Amino acid sequence: MNIGILGLGKISKRVANGIIHAKDGVLYGVASRNIEKAEAFQKECHAIKAYGSYEDLCLDDAIELIYICTPNHLHKEHIMLCLKHHKHVICEKPMLTNREDLKECFDYAKQQHCFLMEAHKTLFTPLNQKLIQMVREGVIGKLSMIDARYCSYLNVHEKDLSSWVLRGDVGGCLYDIGVYPIAYANYFAQSKLKHHDMMIRRKKEGYISQAQGMLMYENGVMAHIVCSWDASMENKGFLYGDEGYIVCENFWKNTRAYLIKNGEKTEISVQMESDFTGEVEHAISCIHQGLLESPVLPYAGSDEILKVIEEKRECD
């Protein structure tokens, strides 16, 4: 399947590597608003074509699937552009920053008969695919509690204060790194949310710098979520059952976790070329099956993530 990348920012080279290693995936085109930048990226990542505008990428009939890598506040515009030209779409997380826009985009995708998925690579890494199978098989007994943390100190003084990253409406740590533990918990709970309570700290500039929350699911599983730009800590995901637990450092991209059960610690490891390959291969498979949504992360799944973020409490 011929795949294009729309937007050549910070994460796009890692996305390109994921596409290159994906079964049935071809890195066909890369698009920037600057043709020189696109051509340099094309050469470095061995793409077939470069485009000096996003419109040109969408107009190429050879392109079947587009991966959007632009800043958060531009996602809706670019999703609608791709769908207008009947391209299937994977959009980097957070796909949208409000639930109304999310519904509008998924409704339009159905109207255009195009596949649309939010890019949450965490759910599709080989390790997490293995761990979800172990949880389903009862390796740790009945899952009861999930604890997921992603904290990375951000020196704001090194940032441009006018950057979208620090905007209160589309930036902040919840949209940047908080979506990882929320998506992780929702995925492993394998149940709809029943109740959630997310507390946040907001800086005087307007952006959220820290958040902590409790999630309760309909099946009784509970989850504790932490994300922060104000603190550095061990970034780990824990899956607790009544017979043991699994712990994984950097749970969104790792190839190694540990099972602690009956007083013994057992390593769980997998091979992985790129942490972006799994989600790309999943999208390709869905498209080949004629699906318009991912069964792993459909519209409802992305909506639940945004619901947790939107319904938060300020902490002074």
Automatic annotation (TrEMBL):
Pfam families: GFO_IDH_MocA, GFO_IDH_MocA_C3
Keyword Transport tagged: no
Gene3D superfamilies per the UniProt record, alphabetical: Dihydrodipicolinate Reductase, domain 2, NAD(P)-binding Rossmann-like Domain
GO MF entry, a single one: nucleotide binding
Domain (GFO/IDH/MocA-like oxidoreductase) ranges: 129-246
Keyword Magnesium: no
UniProt KW keywords: Oxidoreductase
The name this protein goes by in its record: Gfo/Idh/MocA family oxidoreductase
Residues annotated as domain Gfo/Idh/MocA-like oxidoreductase N-terminal: 1-120
Organism: [Eubacterium] hominis
Similarity comment: family membership: Belongs to the Gfo/Idh/MocA family.
